[in-house]
Design a protein that fits this description.
391 residues, alpha+beta, Butyryl-Coa Dehydrogenase, subunit A, domain 1, Butyryl-CoA Dehydrogenase, subunit A, domain 2, 3 domains, 11 helices, binds flavin-adenine dinucleotide
Length: 391
Amino acid sequence: MSDISRYGFDDEYQQLFDMVDRYARENLHELSAKMDDDDWFPKDEYAKLSQLGVLGITLPSELGGAGMDEAAQAMVAHALAKWNPSLSLSYLASDNLCANNLNRHGSDFLREKYLPGFCDGTILGALGMTEPGAGSDALGSMATRARRDGDNYILNGRKLWITNGPEADVVLVYAKTDPEAGNRGISAFLVETGFPGFGVDKKLDKMGYRGSPTGELVFEDCVVPAENLVGEENNGVRVMMSGLDLERALLAAHCVGICERALELSIDWAKNREQFGTAIGNQQLVQRMLAHMYTDTASARNFCYQIIRECEGLTDDQVGRGEIHMRTAASVLLAGGAINRVLDNGMQIHGGMGFMREIEINRLYRCAKILEIGAGTREIRELIVGGELVR
Ligand SMILES: Cc1cc2nc3c(=O)[nH]c(=O)nc-3n(C[C@H](O)[C@H](O)[C@H](O)COP(=O)(O)OP(=O)(O)OC[C@H]3O[C@@H](n4cnc5c(N)ncnc54)[C@H](O)[C@@H]3O)c2cc1C
């Protein structure tokens, strides 16, 4: 188990981490293979996480949440990722990207209406920003439009590669309400997937993170009550930017969990696989790969939790720019590179067996690449860090 307390967190956090780690090892790990084979999302098992008190972990207790902070959420993502990366990714999309942003920016009406459902597992959330023509340039190229019509907004457009999209009950959607105003003309909406005009065009077939459903969403004259506007009209970029730094910090914790599991599996394999009359782990070239896996994992974990500590207590106007924006991007830049090197070495140690789809290291390997693409690609992370350094 990871010693979280070494990063200066209270016992309460270590106990939380240990509880989720144990639960995930005993109950969720065994689901991973079927989720991968059948691209099956176990919605009931996801909902059962509410019994651990980890759904809505950052939400206030009067709405059913645990009233903890994003550090606690990072630890849950870390522990879940170690045993079931797909469930961890879906957890982050719902509990962080959707619920956390709604809590920070939504009206009392929206918070009271929807957030209890996140906490008891009856609501699964998603976040819809990316579009077919708007990836890295998500804001500038955004084509989804929302126009006011009496007591409603009417949304038209498409959102692509949306985690949880095909199974979600609500989606936090960004759309242009004033297309001439650039970044100052974007608004955020909480869209129920039952609203007229909302549809899932297709569930997408992925190489990794199977079992965490990803979809293309379509809005065709989708009728969204005006009260489902999140934050102020034309102020969606504030909602987005304040959440993005935390998203990156938490995704780094998710990477750490997968790295730890890959290292465990590879040590075990190296000790037990024999060639030339001895365990391959006795070969110094194999030890070198393990040493690099360990070093990448430890450095990603250390930097990740250092940054998560730095995020503690930040208000919305302190994030999305400046040093914390740079450092959260650096944290996921490091973690995304680390996980790809760790899984490359882990596969190499497993030899031909690693190439078999049913082997756990193979499943983890197929997850690694997207961690240098989602939440801002490696290059976008580099641009943020490099740009800030020369500012
Ligand atoms: C499994 C999965 C889950 C996802 N989940 C979500 C989700 O829940 N919600 C959501 O909104 N989105 C989600 N995404 C979308 C994800 O955030 C985007 O894929 C990502 O932002 C990159 O956009 P893109 O794929 O269009 O790449 P592009 O922007 O087309 O980039 C392609 C390449 O060009 C490079 N590039 C682009 N611009 C520059 C530049 N200025 N300088 C240097 N290089 C550049 C990129 O770094 C990359 O290497 C998900 C994607 C996947 C695959």
